[in-house]
Amino acid sequence: MKILYFVTSNKGKYIEAEEKLREIKNIKLEQKRIDYPEIQADTLEEVVEYGIEYLKKKLKKPFILEDAGLFIEHLNGFPGVYSAYVFKTIGCKGILSLLDDMEERNAYFKSVIGFYDPRTNEKKIFKGISKGEISFEMRGTQGFGYDPIFIPEGESRTFGEMETKEKNRYSHRGKSFEKLASFFKKLKIENFKV
């Protein structure tokens, strides 16, 4: 069994990733809590690239990290790369206040996963997007972060009203982890060094 570290302190992200990667035989996902600087940048990709460069000096086994953001069209993509900070400061209620009385509520979630294998120096980036809209009120207690206010396209429920497996079918993170899983399926497991 090959160990793949997921560098995150977010238990919810780990649970979603574990559910999505469960079908990959011979790889065991292990949560690794290591603080790394999340730089102020214009894109999630830049944040992930910086995280890989920082962590590859500290870890001897293959690892992944993920950054995600909520981009609201009416707010010119805000909170975007600052989603975690904005959630900590104003939360879902603050976002709903910013959109008070707005009918135009289109938004999307984006997830960027970085994979790095220190033995081969291989680095890959995987992206997923979930389009949808912001609800008019908080609904549901599942998930974490902005889940109670985001309704994905093709649904009437928020992510907060969905179980993990169901959310993974629609979510940005589910889509990026699906691409990662597809990469591992194509990769001969003996080439996945640990």
Structure explained in plain terms:
A hairpin with a 6-residue loop joins strand 3 and strand 4. This protein has one domain (2-191): Maf protein. Helices cover 31% and strands 27% of the residues. Strands 1, 2, 3, 4, 5, 6 and 7 form a seven-stranded mixed β-sheet that branches. The protein has 194 residues and is α/β, with parallel strands linked by helices. The chain has helices spanning 11-21, 44-55, 83-89, 91-98, 164-170, 172-186, and strands spanning 2-7, 27-32, 63-72, 79-80, 106-117, 122-134, 150-152.
* Low-confidence blocks of residues: none
Strand content bin: 25-35%
- The CATH class assignment is Alpha Beta
Q: What structural category characterises the helix and strand content? A: alpha/beta
How many β-strands, per DSSP?
Answer: 7
Describe the global form.
Answer: globular
Layout of helices and strands:
Blueprint: E1 2-7, H1 11-21, E2 27-32, H2 44-55, E3 63-72, E4 79-80, H3 83-89, H4 91-98, E5 106-117, E6 122-134, E7 150-152, H5 164-170, H6 172-186
Parallel strand pairs: 1-2, 1-3
Antiparallel strand pairs: 3-4, 3-5, 5-6, 6-7
Helix pairs in contact: 1-6, 3-4, 5-6
